[in-house]
Amino acid sequence: MDQRDASVPTISRIGPFRASVTTFGALIGSGFRRYATYRQATIAGTFTNVVFGFLRCYVLLAVAEGAAGNSPGGYAPDQLALYVWVGQGLLSVIGIWGWTELADRIRSGDIAADLLRPIGPVTAYLAADLGRALHGMLTRFGPPLLAGAVFFPLHTPARWQTVPLFALSIMLAVIICFGCKYLVNSTAYWLQDARGPIMLWTLGSGVLGGLYFPLRLLPEPVLYPLWLLTPLPSLLQTPLDVIAERDGPVTQSALVALQVVWAVIVLLLAGLVQRRAEKRLVVQGG
């Protein structure tokens, strides 16, 4: 027999990796296109963020004027203004609110279709969320920041490492936020109705994540345990402190490193909870 005819085609060692990367990228693109479809909602959401940006900025600047030394929590007025307007731009990027898709699919039973797919739910939903975050960064981050720059003096980063650290911090915040939302939504596997945990998440993530006010205004005995023992300050407070240069370079890097730790922890927990939930479904005959 001819040697060529007897040869057996083999899969390249890097083939599966390339296929995984391609699939993950396709899911990111799908998530981006999904949110790009709702143009009017994007415009309305951006307008709302700008309006609330003015309200929050004036309140915090009033606090700064009444504080001794005009630096509450160690923030100068221009740093507070930057904190507010970058935070308004990051709301749709981090996406701390509004995601109930997993809980809805668990409640309706559609999650069974997700479990039959070659990519696990955690990976698939993470890729879709990264696509959503990319859309928010391209469409809804700039307008609030531009509005703030027009009407308020904003702090300009003075250190070269601030912008790269800020970009990395945003990506880590998106991953941490996704992991937390996934865990909250996963309570529907046991509760059937996750509206209670989701409501608690909506309230807690805004207050303890640094959205409504800088957490540096809290007493240190409350601030440090909150920052070290929970992932919530890593959602918004850390990226905003990095870009506002509230701390020195070493502390900036340490805050981002803490985000890396929390990103790993929440993703591992999400995977663990998903596996436990799948075993529960199998035991129940689902």
Query: How would you classify the helix and strand content by structural class?
Result: mainly alpha
The structural domain count equals: 1
Q: What is the CA-CA span between the terminal residues? A: 51 Å
Q: Roughly what percent helix?
A: over 70%
Largest β-sheet summary: none
Mean pLDDT: 87
Rg result: 22 Å
**How many helices in DSSP terms?**
14
Beta fraction? under 5%
- Uncertain regions spanning at least 5 consecutive residues: 1-13
**Strands, total number:** 0
Categorize the overall geometry: globular
Q: What is the string of SSEs from the N terminus onward?
A: HHHHHHHHHHHHHH
List keywords for this structure.
286 residues; globular; disordered N terminus; 14 helices; mainly alpha
Quick structural gist:
With 286 residues, the protein is an all-alpha fold. Helix content is 74%, strand content 0%.
Description:
This protein is mainly alpha-helical and 286 residues long. The chain has one domain. 74% of the residues lie in helices and 0% in strands. It contains 14 helices and no strands. Helix 3 runs antiparallel to helix 4 and helix 4 crosses helix 13. 39% of the residues are buried.
Layout of helices and strands, plus pairs?
Layout: H1 3-6, H2 15-36, H3 39-66, H4 77-95, H5 101-108, H6 111-115, H7 121-139, H8 142-151, H9 162-186, H10 188-191, H11 195-208, H12 220-229, H13 237-244, H14 249-283
Helix pairs in contact: 2-7, 3-4, 3-8, 4-7, 4-8, 4-9, 4-13, 5-9, 7-9, 9-13, 9-14, 13-14
